[in-house]
């Protein structure tokens, strides 16, 4: 049997109908056995039906009626459906405030009086914010700052098992370790950041210097060039620092004022004029004089990959008004030659290789320049760079394609070009492969 729908119009009709019946009952004025008319209201008699006791005044009767209704349990009435029961008093002395009915909402589309359990809405899950205990901060990655220490330099003791290690309680730079196979070793960790080491080619001696401010070598690789027998300059990121090495001690000297975020990546020194050239990842070249002043010009679109000063044979003298040529290459595939002493910001000449130029090299006499990409080399004459004089294709050489070089081709990130003392042969290195190219017999 289908359920009957129930809305506010039907409820209002039922209430109106009950009021009409109550009015009829009062008009009929049913007489009791004592001859006193019993006046009834919609919810019951309004006057007492017995004359044995005096009738209370109107106020006392009203209070008594309210007290009786508030304390008694509701009884079924005969003026409405069997499922309806009388309401408890809401506590208002001067009437009541009706509560709006919500029977006409569109929450029951099948028009049944009561929704079935299948039609009840699903509970809504409250999501005020992240669950308690959820980590919102970024996790610091410590792998790049790890230093690995060898437990033993002796090959026969490489299987030693570490049993205990302890830091010196007063010196945080000293770490000791003991273990099996007579392992007992102590390390002095001068610095956990970037350390510069100068080694002597004629002895086993070396000198170390720790960079201040914990320079991150992984994010900002360093370039270095000697400016004399005892002085050198390093650059990387925002760092451009001159250092002095003598009597087994490295000490900083001049620190150049660089632009923040300039990202220096290449460095080259011209001992003929004492000029220092630096290149940035933004394509800018800076020429620094001996006083620390600089002159800048935009050279490439993007990262500059190589810088090289043109060599001059002896006894060529460089006067104050002589030009000084500097070659640069970049990821934009261009090679440009600049007069570093000129106020002109336009290059003296330029060539293009079509893809990223990874290395540059002048012949010792400065007559030719070679540029290399990942797969070929082109050689130009400096005074006439309109067309290359020679070329070499890496893919054409069968000896280059060894099984090992094929496996590591995807890992190549270092390339080198250099000429022999006569300018006849060119060495080209890429990854773990090295080729010697004959240019002139």
UniProtKB/TrEMBL annotation:
Q: Which SMART domains match?
A: WD40
The primary location reported for this protein is nucleus
The record's listing under Pfam families reads:
WD40
Q: Which Gene3D superfamilies match?
A: YVTN repeat-like/Quinoprotein amine dehydrogenase
Q: For this protein, what is any one GO molecular function term?
A: transcription corepressor activity
Q: Where are the WD repeats?
A: 297-348
Give the residue spans that cross the bilayer. none
Q: List localization entries.
A: Nucleus
Check the record and name the InterPro entries matching this protein: Ebi-like, WD40/YVTN_repeat-like_dom_sf, WD40_repeat_CS, WD40_repeat_dom_sf, WD40_rpt
Tell me which UniProt keywords the record has, alphabetically: Nucleus, Repeat, WD repeat
Q: Where is this region: Disordered?
A: 67-121
Recorded protein name is F-box-like/WD repeat-containing protein TBL1X
Which species expresses this protein natively?
Amylocarpus encephaloides
Its lineage reads: Eukaryota, Fungi, Dikarya, Ascomycota, Pezizomycotina
């Amino acid at each position: 049997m289908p359920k009957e729908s129930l809305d506010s119009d039907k409820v209002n009709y039922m209430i109106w109908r009950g009021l009409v019946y109550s009015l009829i009952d009062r008009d009929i004025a049913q007489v009791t056995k004592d001859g006193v008319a019993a006046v009834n209201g919609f919810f019951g008699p309004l006057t007492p039906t017995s004359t044995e006791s005096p009738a209370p005044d109107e106020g006392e009767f009203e209070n008594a009626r309210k007290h009786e209704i508030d304390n008694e349990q509701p009884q079924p009435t005969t003026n409405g459906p069997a499922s309806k029961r009388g309401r408890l008093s809401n506590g208002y002395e001067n009437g009541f405030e009706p509560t709006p009915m919500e029977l006409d909402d569109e929450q029951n589309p099948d028009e049944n009086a009561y929704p079935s359990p299948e039609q009840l809405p699903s509970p809504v899950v409250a999501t005020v914010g992240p669950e308690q205990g959820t980590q919102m901060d970024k996790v610091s990655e410590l792998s790049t700052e790890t230093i690995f220490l060898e437990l033993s330099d002796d090959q026969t003791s490489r299987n030693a098992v570490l049993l205990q290690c302890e830091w010196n309680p007063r010196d945080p730079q000293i770490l000791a370790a003991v273990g099996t196979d007579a392992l007992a070793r102590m390390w002095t960790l001068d610095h956990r950041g970037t350390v510069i080491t100068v080694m002597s080619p004629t002895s086993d001696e070396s000198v170390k210097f720790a960079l201040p401010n914990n320079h991150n070598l992984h994010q900002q690789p360093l370039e270095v060039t000697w400016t004399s027998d005892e002085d050198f300059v390093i650059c990387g990121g925002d760092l451009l620092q001159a250092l002095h090495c003598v009597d087994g001690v490295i000490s900083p000297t001049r620190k150049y004022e660089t632009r923040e975020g300039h990202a220096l990546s290449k460095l080259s020194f011209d001992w003929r004029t004492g000029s220092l050239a630096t290149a940035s990842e933004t394509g800018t070249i800076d020429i620094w004089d001996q006083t620390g002043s600089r002159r800048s010009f935009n050279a490439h679109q993007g990262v500059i990959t190589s810088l090289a000063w043109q060599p001059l044979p002896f006894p060529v003298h460089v006067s104050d008004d002589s030009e000084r040529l500097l070659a640069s290459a970049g990821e934009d595939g261009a090679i440009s030659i600049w007069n570093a002493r000129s106020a002109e910001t336009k290059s003296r000449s330029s060539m293009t290789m079509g893809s990223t130029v990874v290395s540059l090299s002048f012949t010792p006499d400065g007559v030719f320049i070679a540029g290399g990409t990942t797969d070929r080399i082109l050689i130009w004459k400096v005074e006439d760079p309109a067309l290359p004089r020679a070329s070499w294709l890496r893919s054409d050489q069968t000896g280059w394609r060894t099984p090992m070089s094929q496996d590591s081709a995807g890992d190549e990130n270092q390339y080198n070009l250099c000429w022999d003392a006569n300018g006849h042969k060119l060495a080209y290195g890429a990854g773990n492969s090295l080729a010697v190219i004959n240019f002139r017999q």
